[in-house]
Amino acid sequence: MTKKDSQTPSIQVLARAFSLLDVLAAHQDPVPLKDLSERTGLHPSTAHRILNDLAAGRYVDRPEAGSYRLGMRLLELGNLVKARLDVRDAAIGPMRELHKLTHQPVNLSVRQGDEIVYIERTYSERSGMQVVRAVGGRAPLHLTSVGKLFLAYDDPQRVRAYATRTGLTGHTRNSLTDLPSLERELAQVRRQAAARDDEELELGVRCMAAGIFDDQGKLIAGLSISSPADRLEEAWMERVKATAASISASLGHQGQTP
């Protein structure tokens, strides 16, 4: 007996319904019953019966006789799932894995106004670095790797307004305190889809970061590694980018980072 033959009728119906939904999801325009039957391997009468049940539950719509498309109920359910997705919950596991690989503090930050706010961190005493800014701490956008990500993906006029508003105050001799220097740095961030802080916020501390994007392609957070300046390894950047990409994917982001 094959696995397919051993399935209960209710499981078979579910599998067939999901196969029909998958075909509809692959098409923007309504799909005729004949095409649905051919693509799923279901007899037209079987496909028609299942589609009628799905239409009754608003999982599919019939814009015209004999054609079907995904229904609004799926959008409603998708929005419920999206609303329950939390970037911190999605990030904490991958952050711990990245920390195990690098043995350096791994930070999750979001933008609030002209600052970033640290909302999660994984670290241990083995890193040899004192954590100065704890969870809930804040820092200026232009002095941090994650902050540069948010500025890099912002509108140029808004970046200039930020520079005027804040005066680009520096914290160390390495801080970027003039607009032309900052704009050159942001152009590099966009090219590399990654950002760095070269002892610009704190002397002796360097950071590297990559962005976390939602299902609409919007930058919603940044993932960064902080390290003593003489210990930061460039090879870690690819791991940071890969980890950020996996978190983005878990939040529904598809395709390449902007």
Automatic annotation (TrEMBL):
It holds the Pfam family HTH_IclR. This is IclR family transcriptional regulator. InterPro entries: GAF-like_dom_sf, HTH_MetabolicPath_Reg, Tscrpt_reg_IclR_C, Tscrpt_reg_IclR_N, WH-like_DNA-bd_sf, WH_DNA-bd_sf. Transmembrane segments: none annotated. Residues 73-253 form the IclR-ED domain. Keywords: DNA-binding, Transcription, Transcription regulation. Residues 11-72 form the HTH iclR-type domain.
